[in-house]
Amino acid sequence: MAISLKNKIVFITGASSGMGYACAEHFAKKGAKLIIAARRFDRLVQLAQTLELNYNTHVLPLALDVSNHNAVSQAIESLENEWKNIDILINNAGISLSSDKLQDTAIEKWDAMIKTNVNGLLYVTKAILPTMLVKNSGHIINIGSLTAHYVFAGSNIYAATKHAVKAITQALRVDLLGTNIRVSQIDPGATETEFSFIRWGDENKAKAFYKKMKALEAADIAQAIIFCATRNRKINIDSLIINNIDMAGTYHAHAGKENHSTIFD
Ligand SMILES: NC(=O)c1ccc[n+]([C@@H]2O[C@H](COP(=O)([O-])OP(=O)(O)OC[C@H]3O[C@@H](n4cnc5c(N)ncnc54)[C@H](OP(=O)(O)O)[C@@H]3O)[C@@H](O)[C@H]2O)c1
């Protein structure tokens, strides 16, 4: 039987856009109380107001750069009592800043991807885990990627960060064995969000990319996350790879043709 999310406290990173935003909507609809975090605070404030109005729940917007360790510890330490008892953490904040060859990508871009996708996920997890351990329950849901499983031309550093996320998810599961804390990973394929605009800084290029296939929508991923979070407590969904119908791994089909190409071709 599915478990209820009513009044559960859900902490979502990267909630100002895309999958994080969609998760906020889906969890609010189920009656969960939300802490929504990202750097663009104005967007969070607006989202919090909309969700509180539409779903009669409590939503706390939190300005947070997950790649800043001190900021993460301070933000979580200074949560008021009402918000401290986090039940579900969705580690969703993440970026890609390039699809160029590794040797052609600026070191600053490598660093930003690693600091956000790996360090950021670790900092938030480390700050929230102690409360989960004390009450011996909780669920950590990490957002990986297809590139946690397959690399393809131009995916280099980003794929490395998502391979790291997969290793962290698996290792944390092992480290938490014997507790009732669950750890899951959702690995989406191409999903139409602001992600590719951030990657290339070119809106037309981003739109054209998603047009090449039946791209997933952020809501498709949010629904899968709700599924994981609502399974009976003895069930741990270890990982879900979610691709669109036109793709197998990172190869996509051209209608009626047999010479499939990789995602960026
Ligand atoms: N879209 C895809 O095709 C795709 C496929 C596979 C996996 N993913 C993964 O899915 C997750 C969500 O991406 P999305 O597609 O929803 O992209 P998106 O629309 O660009 O959203 C990314 C979110 O991450 C936040 N973020 C980025 N850097 C941050 C930082 N340093 N501190 C706090 N928040 C930060 C952004 O908020 P602020 O800018 O306001 O901070 C934004 O809310 C990411 O982990 C991404 O790697 C995406």
Q: What distance separates the N and C termini? A: 44 Å
The helix content is 40-55%
Instruction: List the domain count as a whole number.
Output: 1
Stretches where pLDDT is under 50 for at least 5 consecutive residues are none
How many β-strand stretches?
Answer: 12
In CATH, the homologous superfamily goes by the name NAD(P)-binding Rossmann-like Domain
Structure description:
With 265 residues, this protein is α/β, with parallel strands linked by helices. The chain has a single domain (9-245), classed as 3-Layer(aba) Sandwich (Rossmann fold). 44% of the residues lie in helices and 18% in strands. It has 9 helices and 12 strands. The chain has helices spanning 18-29, 41-55, 69-77, 81-84, 107-135, 156-175, 195-200, 203-211, 218-229; strands at 9-13, 33-38, 59-63, 88-91, 138-143, 181-188, 191-192, 216-217, 239-242, 247-248, 251-252, 261-262. It has a 7-stranded parallel β-sheet, with helices on both faces. It has a 3-stranded antiparallel β-sheet with strand order 10-11-12, with no helix packed on it. Helix 5 (107-135) links the parallel strand 4 and strand 5. Helix 1 (18-29) packs across helix 9 (218-229). The protein is globular and about 55 Å long. The mean pLDDT is 95. NADP nicotinamide-adenine-dinucleotide phosphate binds at residues 13-20, 38-40, 64-67, 92-95, 116, 120, 143, 145, 188, 190-191, 193-195, 198, 218. Residues 13-20, 38-40, 64-67, 92-95, 116, 120, 143, 145, 188, 190-191, 193-195, 198, 218 line the site of NADP nicotinamide-adenine-dinucleotide phosphate.
